[in-house]
Task: inverse folding
């Protein structure tokens, strides 16, 4: 469902997130699955392959941190833990069984579920990766340092992480506006122009002291 985004998943707005979870996804399992993707910024395969012991401790209590095992990560480099946010429990900790209760739900099946949900509420351009990219961009917009975001996302390098983050046009305009305030670019009146002599004016004496390099002047 990526529409002319050059392979990059759509960033969901707050309104689209609310619409998708309230009207698009029609059962708790699906809300839980994509809620985990959104609230932890994990990949769809990482969410689909979660085990009970990755979620619950020996006393069947929800762990304070979600365990994402390296065998289920994209690069398979290391297991990582992601803190569980206060907003996430209502969408979490359901079993993501596959068809007929065998194994875990397939990521392709999850993609089909999301496509149907998006069609139901008229959201275009979203994919299962949209939740991860949305979460990481929201962290960046909130001013969280990239090095900390990298710990959550599991990217090997900051360069890989930065490819996920969306730069909004208003952010670019804000940077340019900030630069204009640092110099005379934003000025409309230049009172000091009278100090510069008109060298083309006929029969005009020029005070050469204006151009002296002597620091004592």
Result:
């Amino acid at each position: 469902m990526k529409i002319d985004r050059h392979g990059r998943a759509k960033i969901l707005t707050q309104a689209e997130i609310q619409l998708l979870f309230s009207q698009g996804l029609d059962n708790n399992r699906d809300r839980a699955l994509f809620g985990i993707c959104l609230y932890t910024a994990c990949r769809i395969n990482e969410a689909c392959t979660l085990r009970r012991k990755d979620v619950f401790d020996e006393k069947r209590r929800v762990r304070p941190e979600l365990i994402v095992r390296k065998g289920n990560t994209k690069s398979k480099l290391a297991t990582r833990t992601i803190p569980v946010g206060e907003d996430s429990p209502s969408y979490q900790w359901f079993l993501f069984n596959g068809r007929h209760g065998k194994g875990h739900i397939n990521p392709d099946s999850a993609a089909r579920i999301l496509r149907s949900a998006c069609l139901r509420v008229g959201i275009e351009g979203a994919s299962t990766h949209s939740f991860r990219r949305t979460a990481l961009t929201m962290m960046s917009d909130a001013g969280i340092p990239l090095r900390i975001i990298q710990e959550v996302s599991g990217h090997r390098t900051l360069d890989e992480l930065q490819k996920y983050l969306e730069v909004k046009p208003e952010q670019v305009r804000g940077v340019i506006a900030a630069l204009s305030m640092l110099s005379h670019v934003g000025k409309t009146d230049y009172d000091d122009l009278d100090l510069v002599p008109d060298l083309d004016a006929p029969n005009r004496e020029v005070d050469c002291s204006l151009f002296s390099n002597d620091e004592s002047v």
User: Anything to note?
Assistant: The longest strand covers residues 65-68. The radius of gyration is 28 Å. The chain has nine helices and two strands. Confidence is low (pLDDT under 50) at residues 1-6, 89-94.
